[in-house]
C-alpha cells in the first residue's frame, strides 16, 4: 500500500495552484471553525470507545478484589497492587493445574518462532517461483491457494486431524507449527509474489547473465533487498499465530496449549470466586506481545494487513 | 539453459517446481482434498470416527431440524448483516474524517486500529468484563445514582448478540477503516479539484463520487470481512460460550462441539459443508468479477 501525498478537501489550501485564489494579506485564523470542532469531537468520541477497554483492563488489573467488588470499573485504583499480575503469571488456575499463564506464554513462544520461520521460508520461495520462474500451471495453483484461504477452517479441520495423526504430529508443538505453516501460506505467498514482481526485472536478468541459478538469485540478490517485506511478513505472522486459538486448542495437545487457550481456560473455568483483577491482568499479558509489536511497528503492521486487500 | 533440449517438459524449470511443491501440496491436499473429504463424509453415518456408510442427506435433514443449528444460522446471519453494515459505515466515516488533514492523524489511526492487533479471545474477555451486569457498566452507572439503569445485553437471550456485536465492531472496524483510507487516498486529486470547482460540498463528493470510485476496495474488503464473519468462533467462546442457553451459538462452534466434544462427526461435517456453501455463495460472484477484470485488462 502506498499512501500518497494527497491534496484533498483542504480547509487551508497549500499547493501553489490554489494559492493563487487565496486572498492576499494575513491568513484568517481558521481554528475556531465549528465544522472542525465537530470533526475533532467525533474523532475523540470514537477514540474513547476504542481506548475504554484498554483503560478498564489496566485499572481493574491494578485493584484488589475488595475494590473491584465496589463496582466502579472506570474508577482508578485507590490502592495500586501488582498482586493480580503476579498471580496471573505465576499461579492462576486453568482447571487442570495452577501454574499461571507463564506455561502458555512459553508454549506460544515455542509455537510462534518455528511457525514464523518455516512459513516465511516456504512462502518466500513460493512467491519467488511464482513471480520469476512461472511454470505451466503455477497461476492455477496460486489462484486455488488464494481462494482456498477463504474456506472456513472448520471445513478442513477433521481431515487435517487425520493427516497430522498419521504423520505422528497430532497433539504436539510440531503439529500446530505444521498447521500454521499451511494456513499462513496463502497470504504470505501473495505478499512475496507481489513484492518480487514489483522489483525491476533487469536485476533478475543481470543475475542470470552472471550465471546465477534459481537459488543463487534468490539468496544473493533478492533476499538482501527484500528486508522490508520480510519484516512485514514477520509482523503479520507473529501477531496472527500468537492470537490463534482454534489451531492451538485442537492440534497442540493439553500440555502445549498456547497462551490464548490458557487465558480462556483461566477466565472461563469457574472454580470458586472469580478474580476479575487476575483475569484482566492475564488478558493484558496475553495481548501484550501483539500490542507491543503493533505500537512499535505501526506502518509495517498496516502494510501487512492491507496486503491481502490492496493488490500490488 | 534454454538451449539444452529436455526430453520431458515436466523437468523444465525444475527448481521452481521443487520450490513450489509445498504450495502445490497445500492446494491439492489441504484446500481441495480436505474440503472434498469433508463434503463426501457429510453424507455418511460417521459418529465418533469416519464411517463409509452413505445415508444421503439424512445428516442435513437432522441438522436443519436441530434448534441449536437453526439458532446458530440465524445468529450468524443477523450478526453478519449488522456487523458488515456498522463496520463499513463506521470504518468509512472514520477514514473520511481522518482524511480531512487533521492534526494527530497518526495518533487517531493508531488508536482506532490497535484492537485489530488483539485476539478475539482477549477482545471477548475484556468485553465480557465491561458488560458484566453485576460489576460492569451497569453497576457503575447505578453507583453514580441512576439506580434503575439497565445495560445487561450479555445476560439476556434476546440481546446477547448485540453484546457480541459491540465487541466484534470494536475489534474489526479499524481494519475496514485502514482499507477505506487507502481507497480514499488512491483517488486522483484532480477529482477533488473538479468537485471543488463545481461547488459540490465535501460530503456529497464522498457519497456520490468517492464511494462509487472505490468499488474495488469496497468489494475486496466486503469479501474479506464477510469470510471472516462466517468463521466467527473465538469471540463467542471467550465472551459467552454460546449462552445464555443457546442464544449466542454460531455455526463454527456447532462444528467444533459436534466434532470434538460430542463425537458426532456426521453432524459436524454436514454443518461445515453448509458453512463452505455459504462462503462459496459470497466468493463465486467475486471470483467472477476479479476474473472478468483481469480478462479486460489483457
How is this structure best described in words?
The complex is a heterodimer of chains A (312) and B (298). Chain A is an all-alpha fold. Chain A folds into two domains: 28-81, no CATH class; 102-307, MetI-like fold, CATH 1.10.3720. Helices cover 66% and strands 0% of the residues of chain A. Chain A has 15 helices and no strands. Chain A has helices at residues 16-19, 34-61, 65-68, 83-90, 102-132, 138-148, 153-166, 173-198, 201-209, 214-222, 227-242, 246-251, 259-268, 276-296, 298-307. The longest helix of chain A has 31 residues, at 102-132. The model of chain A is unreliable at 1-20 (pLDDT under 50). With 298 residues, chain B is mostly helical. Chain B has two domains: 1-41, no CATH class; 58-297, Orthogonal Bundle (MetI-like fold), CATH 1.10.3720.10. Chain B is 69% helix and 0% strand. Chain B has helices at 14-19, 21-41, 58-63, 67-98, 105-113, 120-131, 137-143, 160-185, 189-197, 202-213, 215-230, 234-239, 251-261, 265-297. Chain B is flat. At the A-B interface, helix 2, helix 5, helix 6, helix 7 and helix 8 of A face helix 1, helix 2, helix 4, helix 5 and helix 6 of B.
Features:
heterodimer; A: 312 residues; mainly alpha; MetI-like fold; 2 domains; 15 helices; globular; B: 298 residues; 69% helix; flat
